């Protein structure tokens, strides 16, 4: 493990409209578990110049969006955009939420976690692997796992991205004074695959300094068997009924969390295009971010 606590490398600082942005590398040197891929990171921009999608990420970073001092509550959230482990929906599932949270006095940190790069080959499970993805018990996914047949490359990527998530939390807590953050009020929210990565980071965490105080997953079911961690944080889940496979996975996650004695709240909106993020569609799913904020208040964050 690199000793990131000795120094943080700010790779750029720039002014955004009414927001300050700082980008911090998660590790000094080569990230743990990184492959030898020399592929270059790619990004596409929208017509307005905002970053739409980022792919081929091998060097993870954390982008800080801090609220105005007069509004700051001390609460902070690590945001994991989704993208099927192959890209990050950076603006709609990252930056826009960060800016919305800033208006509520919440510090936000958009995590550019490691992805499955375009030079990685698909490695299928061995012949005869049980098709548990299609198996239901009383209409519930087995062990609340929405992706039991992930190949070995995806498993490695999830493991690396989960460690990136834990490292992000350590960095935020280490720099709590500088960023005016309460170290006891650091949480995580993930979209789609980002939610699955976040859940993996929590379920396989033996380091309390990297355990978030609260977690939320937005249309992101678990990508592996759900095992309740010690000191499990309260969980918020939101998805839409129009995306039935994801909704089933989120319901199974909710039940598993509650059955194990954890705190959890779930919202399944009747209408809303899958992958809604911060897009306003004039559908019930538009309400998710307000429900999330009310939940934060009710949980004392």
List the helices and strands and how they pair.
Layout: E1 10-16, E2 19-25, E3 42-45, E4 51-55, E5 61-65, E6 76-80, E7 87-89, H1 91-103, E8 107-112, E9 136-137, E10 140-141, H2 152-174, H3 176-179, E11 186-191, H4 193-203, E12 215-218, E13 235-240, H5 244-259, E14 264-269, H6 288-298
Parallel strand pairs: 6-8, 6-11, 11-12, 12-13, 13-14
Antiparallel strand pairs: 1-2, 2-5, 3-4, 4-7, 5-8, 9-10
Helix pairs in contact: 2-4
Detailed description of the structure:
This protein is an alpha/beta fold and 301 residues long. The chain has one domain: Rossmann fold (3-Layer(aba) Sandwich). Helix content is 26%, strand content 23%. It is built from 6 helices and 14 strands. The strands form 3 sheets. A 9-stranded mixed beta sheet has the order 1-2-5-8-6-11-12-13-14, sandwiched between helices. Strands 3-4-7 form a 3-stranded antiparallel beta sheet. Strand 3 and strand 4 form a beta hairpin. Helix 2 crosses helix 4.
Annotation keywords:
Rossmann fold; nine-stranded mixed beta sheet; 301 residues; three-stranded antiparallel beta sheet; globular; alpha/beta; disordered N terminus; 14 strands
């Amino acid at each position: 493990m690199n000793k990131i606590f000795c120094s943080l490398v700010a790779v750029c600082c720039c002014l955004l409209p009414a927001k300050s942005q700082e980008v911090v590398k998660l590790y000094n040197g080569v990230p743990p578990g990184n492959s030898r891929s020399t592929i270059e990171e790619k990004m596409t921009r929208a017509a307005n110049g905002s970053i739409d999608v980022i792919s081929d990420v091998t060097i993870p970073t954390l982008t800080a969006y801090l609220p105005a001092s007069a509004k700051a509550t001390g609460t902070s959230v690590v945001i994991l955009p989704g993208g099927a482990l192959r890209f990050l929906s950076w603006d709609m599932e990252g930056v826009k939420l960060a800016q919305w949270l800033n208006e509520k006095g919440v510090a936000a940190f958009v995590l550019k976690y490691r992805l499955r790069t375009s030079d990685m080959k698909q490695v299928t499970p061995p012949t005869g692997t049980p098709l548990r993805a299609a198996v239901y018990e009383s209409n519930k996914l087995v062990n609340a796992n929405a992706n039991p047949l992930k190949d070995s490359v995806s498993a490695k990527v999830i493991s690396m991205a989960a460690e990136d998530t834990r490292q992000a939390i350590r960095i935020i807590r280490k720099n709590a004074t500088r960023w005016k953050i309460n170290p006891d009020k650091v949480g995580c929210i993930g979209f789609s695959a980002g939610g699955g990565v976040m859940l993996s980071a929590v379920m396989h965490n033996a380091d309390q300094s990297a355990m978030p105080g609260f977690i939320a997953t937005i249309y992101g079911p678990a990508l592996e068997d759900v095992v309740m961690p010690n000191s499990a944080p309260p969980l918020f889940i939101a998805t839409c009924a129009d995306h039935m496979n994801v909704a089933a996975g989120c319901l199974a996650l909710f039940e598993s969390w509650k059955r194990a004695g954890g705190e959890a709240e779930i919202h399944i909106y009747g209408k809303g295009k899958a992958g809604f993020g911060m897009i306003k569609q004039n559908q019930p799913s538009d309400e998710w971010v307000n429900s999330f904020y009310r939940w934060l208040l009710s949980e004392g964050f």
